[in-house]
Each structure stands twice: as structure tokens, then as C-alpha cells.
Amino acid sequence: MIDLRSDTVTRPTEAMREAMAIAPVGDDVWGDDPSVARFEAELADRAGFSAAAFFPSGTQSNLTAMLTHCGRGDEVILGQRSHMYRDEGGGAAVLGAIQPQPLEQDELGRMAVEDIAAAIKGDDIHHARTRLIALENTFQGRVLPADYVETVTGLAAERGLVCHLDGARLFNASVASGRSLAELCAGFDSASLCFSKGLGAPVGSLLVGGERFIERAKRWRKTLGGGMRQSGILAAGCRHAFHHHVERLADDHRHARQLAQWLGQVANLQVAGQATNMVFLDVPAPHCGPLEAYLAERDILVAVRPRTRMVTHLDVDEDAVRRVASEIASYFRCVEQA
């Protein structure tokens, strides 16, 4: 089975399973799990922060960051198409009474700096109090420009706000840009790092930040049901991924470029974009359902939409993406001959 629906479908390797099996564990809610503690300390240092907390998911990690940075009636400025705004169940509003202020983004994921500045609200009883600005890197596979990040985080500091980074695919950004985690996290007050996407761990995200921030975040984690017990088994899988699966993300990026190149030769199909491990296609609406079914019959899973996203990962090699392109071309040849 070739699965290009997302890089979340990756499965742990045998070496990762072995690392998980032999990991020393304890009760992490009591702070007794050595595997979790080692993982948190190591990644916090690599990202340029003093502390970290291990979470089951990036959604919970991002939510905890918002709940920790903001109080009831506070506001977070974030992108209209960002994952935190569109794809995390409205948790900040539902559970924290935090108001989102979404702003339009360009194709790189940037909100216009002048729009951000204009959206910041002061301490006026008529307005929610702006407290937080959130950015996402990568955004739809694209790496946020460094100068943009520096400008936005600088604006936040100037206006007395804090900044959070949704770094669900920050390791892809690191490999694509050649910049370290610490460089990519510079200027932010907190960041969420995911290990269950391209890195292939079955579960796990880290929230990194200052010591006081993480102390408060762990209280929210417990409230949200994210306090885990012998979670060193999971942390060991994430740590293995960090040490063995980051550099190989370059293979995923190369496979995505190859896939985009081959699909660009298919009639009736438009490659709308490609960045890091993602390929975006414009598929004529009448073909969406039939193409998805055609591919599924051939053991290829793609969520086909008018704007289709295909994501390469460690379970997809060059032969796989070549076969996907070939089968899609075959589908459209059959359509033309019908």
C-alpha cells in the first residue's frame, strides 16, 4: 500500500520499536520517567529554550501554549488558513475563552506585517486584549522566510506581545533551509515540535519554552488529560526519530520534487505547487471521486479533492512515487479513450 494522504501515516521502524522496547520508564506525572526527562532536556537545548514538556499531540501542545500565554478574553492573532485556526477544533475558544483574530495569508503563509500591526488591540474595554501572535513553519510545505519571522517577532516584542511557533514540520524546514532548530525558533517565546509526521514516531510532540512557562503548561496539560504515566516508551521512539530520521527528510523532499515533475507531464492535471515533502494538484472536480477510487483499487491512497495534497514520507520511496505518477497518467489516458 502506498499512502500519500499525509506524513502522519508513517509507521515506526524496527529500530525505533527496539528503542521503545528497552526504554527505562517511570511515572511521568510524578516526574519520574528518565526517558521523558532526557528527551525533554535534549530537545529544549537544541531548540534554544530552557525547558520542554512532552505531549500526546501537536494539537494539545498548541492549545496548551495558547492557554498558558493567554487568559480569558485575550486574543491570538494567527493565519486564516493556519492549522491552529482551521484544524484544531477551535479549542482555544471552546476551552479557554480565547478569541482568535485570523488574518489572510499569502502563498508562503505570511500575514502582512501591516495587517498584524493594525490588528493589535490595546487595553480598551471594548476589545479583546491582544496577547499572542502565532506563526506556522512550514506552511503547506513552504518554509517561512527568516527575515519575515524576525520582523514579526520583533514587532511582537515591541508591542509587548508573546509569539508562539507551530512547528509541526519544523524539522522539514530545518533540512530544507539548512538552519538549526535554535535558529528557526529564535525570537519565539514557545514552540511546538511534532515527531509523528515525517520523523515517523507513532505519537508525540514537545512544547518548548522558558522554565516558568513550561511549569504552567504542565498544569494545563494535566487539566486537558495529557498527563501520561510510563510515557518514556513513546519518548524513546521520538528521540530515536530525532537522532536517525531528520537528515533523511531530504529524501522525502527529493521524492516530492520527482512526483511533481512526473505529474506535470500528465494531461488534464495541473501541478499547483511543490515544497519540501508536499505536492499540490488541481484536479477537475468530476474526476475527484473516480480518480480516488481508481487509485485505491491499485493500493494507492490519496485524498483526491479539487486541490489535492500529496505528502511523501519515510514509507514512500522513489519507486512508489514513480508508480503513483504512472497510475494517475493511466487513469487520464483511460478517460480520454472512453
Give a structural overview:
With 338 residues, the chain is an alpha/beta fold. The chain has 2 domains: 11-244, Type I PLP-dependent aspartate aminotransferase-like (Major domain) (Aspartate Aminotransferase, domain 2); 249-337, Aspartate Aminotransferase, domain 1 (Alpha-Beta Complex), CATH 3.90.1150.10. Helix content is 45%, strand content 18%. The protein contains 14 helices and 12 strands. A 7-stranded mixed β-sheet has the order 2-8-7-6-5-3-4, sandwiched between helices. Strands 9-10-12 form a 3-stranded antiparallel β-sheet, covered by helices on one side. Helix 12 runs parallel beside helix 14. It is globular. The two termini are 27 Å apart. The mean pLDDT is 97.
Topology record:
Layout: E1 2-3, H1 14-21, H2 34-47, E2 51-55, H3 58-69, E3 74-79, H4 83-86, H5 91-96, E4 99-103, H6 113-119, E5 129-136, H7 146-158, E6 162-167, H8 170-177, H9 181-185, E7 190-194, E8 205-209, H10 211-223, H11 232-244, H12 249-263, E9 270-275, E10 278-282, H13 285-297, E11 300-301, E12 307-311, H14 318-337
Parallel strand pairs: 1-11, 3-4, 3-5, 5-6, 6-7
Antiparallel strand pairs: 2-8, 7-8, 9-10, 10-12
Helix pairs in contact: 1-11, 2-11, 3-10, 12-14
